[in-house]
Amino acid sequence: MDSHRLIAFVTALFLAILIVLWSSSGSSKVSPFVYKAVAVFSGDSAVTGTVVFEQSSASAPVIITGDLKSLDPLSSRGFHIHQFGDATNGCMSAGSHFNPFNKKHGAPTAVERHVGDLGNIQSDKTGAAQFTLTDNLISLNGPLSIVGRAVVLHAVADDLGLGGNAESLKTGNAGARAACGVIGIAEFR
């Protein structure tokens, strides 16, 4: 009788191992490193579209590509990563600019800037904005990760911290939050 229990145990263990191996051999790639993230703009605002963030390695810059529609034609808008990915109260729940180093607001190329300061995007005469940006400070991994935070499109142009007043050094005088999307992990292919 003991040999029957041993055979049953070994058989059950073998089947459990096979099930684990089979279930983990799916076609999607799983990696502890986040290579791609996406934010979808939709909801109360007329602005719709997507912003994709890609990073090839921990030391590589993040490439940001966007395709947004229904903006004011020929307008320049402030574009920032905000602290939280909370949309319970629209874009207002997103908190302030992502600023873990407690710096003043600035241009994306400035030494003194918030981590989330990405400058401006420009819409064309139809109100569409297709853009590609490269940023060396944000990341999809580690302490500067933007995953789970919000990307916010503001109502007016960002003065890049050069407006000569306290609000410029805090927000770039970019105005109200016109639209936003929460940044989530995307499937890596």
Automatic annotation (TrEMBL):
CDD domains per the record?
A: Cu-Zn_Superoxide_Dismutase
InterPro entries named in the record = SOD-like_Cu/Zn_dom_sf, SOD_Cu/Zn_/chaperone, SOD_Cu/Zn_BS, SOD_Cu_Zn_dom
Substrates-to-products reaction catalysed: 2 superoxide + 2 H(+) = H2O2 + O2
Cofactor binding, note field: Binds 1 copper ion per subunit.
Signal peptide position in this chain? 1-27
A GO MF label: copper ion binding
Question: What superkingdom heads the lineage?
Answer: Eukaryota
Q: Which cofactor does it need?
A: Cu cation; Zn(2+)
Q: Please indicate if the UniProt record lists Signal as a keyword.
A: yes
Q: Do the record's keywords include Signal? A: yes
UniProt-listed Gene3D superfamilies: Superoxide dismutase, copper/zinc binding domain (2.60.40.200)
Task: List membrane-spanning regions.
Answer: none
EC no.?
A: 1.15.1.1
Pfam families reported in the protein's UniProt record: Sod_Cu (PF00080)
- In this chain the Superoxide dismutase copper/zinc binding domain maps to 47-183
* Keywords noted in UniProt: Antioxidant, Copper, Metal-binding, Oxidoreductase, Signal, Zinc
SUPFAM superfamilies in alphabetical order:
Cu,Zn superoxide dismutase-like (SSF49329)
**Which family, according to UniProt?**
Belongs to the Cu-Zn superoxide dismutase family.
Q: What does this protein do?
A: Destroys radicals which are normally produced within the cells and which are toxic to biological systems.
Stored PANTHER family: SUPEROXIDE DISMUTASE CU-ZN -RELATED
Q: What is the recorded name of this protein?
A: Superoxide dismutase [Cu-Zn]
